[in-house]
Amino acid sequence: MRILVPVKRVVDYNVKVRVKSDGTGVDIANVKMSMNPFDEIAVEEAVRLKEKGAATEIIAVSCGDAKCQETLRTAMAIGADRGILVETTEELQPLAVAKLLKALVDKEQPALVILGKQAIDDDANQTGQMLAALADLPQATFASKVEVADDKVNVTREVDGGLETISLSLPAVITTDLRLNEPRYVTLPNIMKAKKKQLDTFKPEDLGVDVKPRLKTLKVSEPPKRGAGIKVPDVATLVDKLKNEAKVI
Ligand code: AMP
Predict the structure, then answer these.
(1) Distance of CA 81 to CAs 28, 98, 248, Å?
(2) Ligand 1 atom with the shortest distance to the CA of 123
(3) How many CB atoms lie within 10 A of CB 158?
(4) How buried is residue 55: exposed, middle or buried, by Cβ count under 10 Å (0-12/13-18/19+)?
(5) For site-directed labelling of 25, which of 70, 81, 214, 245 has its Cα 20 to 30 A away?
(6) Ligand 1 center to 137 CA (angstroms)
(7) Ligand 1 centroid to 52 CA: how many Å?
(8) pLDDT tens digits, the chain, 249 residues: what are they?
(9) Residue 244 DSSP code
C-alpha cells in the first residue's frame, strides 16, 4: 500500500508574524519556516502504518518554491521514502493545491492520502476536502485514530458530542487532527539518510494544472489590541462589572 503525504512549508508556529504596512499580507522575509505541524502528524502516521506493515511506500509532496525541498527532506528524515516537489513561485490557493494533488493521485495511485486538517498560515481547512471531491474518493477529516484493515480504513474523529468512528473503503483521503499522534524527533543519522533519498521535481504545467489564484486578498490587518486588565476588590464587584459593563452575564 502506497501513502501520499502532502506537506506544506509554512511560517514556524513559534513566530509572531507581522502584518506588512501596506496591508497586503504578512511579512515572511527572514522568518523561520517549518513543516506545517498537522503535516508532521500526517507523516508520522504514515510512518507508523509502514512500521506496522500496513504500508509499503510513503511519498511526501510539497507544492511551492524551491525551498520546499527542505520540508521534503524533513519528511524523508521522519521516514518518507521519496519526495515530489511541484515547483512554482505563484501564490498557491487550496483549490490549486488540490488539483496538483489530484494529478499526483492519478499518477502514483496511492491507497491513502494523509493531509493535515489545515495549514497554520492560511487556516483554510479546504485542501483535503477539495482533493477528495476532485478525485472522487471517500474522506475522513480530523482523524484522531487510524486503523487499516484489508481494503478498509477505520477512522475515529472528534465530533461535538464525543467520538465518531467511520469505515472507508480504500483508496481514501484522511486529514489529521492534533491528537492523532506525537511526531518523533528527527535524528541526525536520519537527516543524513534523507539527503540521499529520491526527490523528483515537476512544474504545474507538467501535471496539466493551471494554478492561477481564484481569490483576491483585499486586506490583511492586525487584530485589535487588547486593553489592560484591572483588579477588582471582591466577587460582588466582579459580578457587577460582568453584568453591567461587559454585559456577558
Ligand atoms: P489548507 O486547506 O490550506 O488549510 O491545507 C490543508 C492541508 O493541505 C495541509 O495541512 C497540507 O497537508 C495540504 N497542503 C496545503 N497546501 C499545500 C502545499 N502548498 N503543498 C503541500 N501540501 C499542501
Answers:
(1) 30, 22, 54
(2) 4
(3) 16
(4) buried
(5) 70
(6) 17
(7) 26
(8) 999 999 999 999 999 999 999 999 999 889 999 999 999 999 999 999 999 999 999 999 999 999 999 999 999 999 999 999 999 999 999 999 999 999 999 999 999 999 999 999 999 999 999 999 999 999 999 999 999 998 999 999 989 889 999 999 999 999 999 999 999 999 999 999 999 999 999 999 999 999 999 999 999 998 888 889 899 999 999 999 999 998 998
(9) H
Residue 145 pairs in a beta bridge with 156
The string of DSSP letters for 28-40 reads -TT--EEE-HHHH
Cell of 4: 501520499
Three-state secondary structure of 60-78:
EEEEECCCHHHHHHHHHHH
Contact 24, 217 (CB under 8 A): yes
Cell matching residue 204: 504545474
Torsion (CA) 13, 18, 19, 20 in degrees, nearest 10: -130
Q: Which residue has the cell 499580507?
A: 25
Q: For 236, list phi and psi in degrees, rounded to 5.
A: -60, -45
Q: Do 31 and 17 contact (CB within 8 A), yes or no?
A: yes
The three-point CA angle 36-62-33 to 5° equals 40
- Indicate the top mutation candidate among 95, 112, 115, 120 to test ligand 1's pocket, ranked by most ligand atoms within 8 A of CB: 115
| Residue 119 Cα: closest atom of ligand 1 | 4
Fold of 2-244: Rossmann fold (3.40.50)
Residue 167's beta-bridge partner residues? 154
